[in-house]
Amino acid sequence: MLEVNQISVNYGAAPALWDVSIRCGDKELVCVVGPNGAGKTTLINAIAGLHGVKSGSLLFRGQDVTRLSSHLFCEAGIAIVPEGRRLFTQMSVMENLELGGFIASARPHRAARLEQVLALFPALKVKLGSPAGSLSGGQQQMVAIGRALMAGPTLLLLDEPSLGLAPSIVLDMFAAIRRINEQGTAVLLVEQNVAMALETADRAYVMEEGRIVAEGQAREMMNRPEIQKAYLGIEAH
Question: Using alpha carbons only, what angle is made at residue 179 by residues 187 and 75, rounded to the nearest 5 degrees?
């Protein structure tokens, strides 16, 4: 479904990504993990069309979207849940969700997709009329994910969905991400919570200093001594 082929991305004259290649298959759940500042957000923003690519290519469902205008990525079937949620805090939860279904292809399906979002996040049912900014951090993340799902994406990009959430809420959030994937949506997850990401995903990539330094099946990656030591704080004996 998604093929990222040796892309490089700059911020001004400063390189941020070097020859990064990853893939995400149809209905697959893939994670990209690594330390803060590794380039994970830059990568996911490039895949969403929010940051230009200096070299390399982005293929989505067999089509080259590298130079596609950013507003057309959502029409193509890619939706992003950005780091920090970026809700319209003065608008109601319902209004935020409706904005996710604004593209032409999504409008006829708004009612059905709203039902799906509320089935996934039942806590939002009683909050639809409340300002999004009045919700807890976990509920705001639900709204952000729900807004993206209203577009009916075939690929959902998640940038640090556990950031700033209480541990119990993080467990619920990852359970919801698994359900989204099980319902047929491919998911590319960028996360600093390495343990939860590797436990949730099918395959994983490790990014450091703008480069992919390791890849493999997520559960196998969890057992690698170098991954355990660097990211999980586990010393091999």
Answer: 40
CA distance 120 to 11: 37
**Distance of CA 134 to CAs 16, 169, 215, Å?**
35, 17, 40
- Domain 1-75+190-237: assigned CATH number: 3.40.50.300
Whether 148 shows a pLDDT value over 70: the answer reads: yes
Q: Rounded to 5 degrees, what are φ and ψ at 29?
A: -115, 110
In this prediction, residues 11-21 reach a mean pLDDT of 93
On average, the pLDDT of the chain sits at 93
Q: What is the amino acid identity at position 139?
A: Q
Report the pLDDT averaged over residues 134-153: 96
Query: Where do the domains of the chain lie?
Result: 1-75+190-237
| Most distant CA pair in the chain, distance | 58
- Strands (DSSP E) found in the chain: 2-11, 14-24, 29-33, 55-60, 63-64, 78-81, 155-159, 186-191, 203-208, 211-217
Residues 121, 176 contacting (CB under 8 angstroms): yes
Tell me, what's the pLDDT at 234?
67
| pLDDT confidence of residue 143 | 97
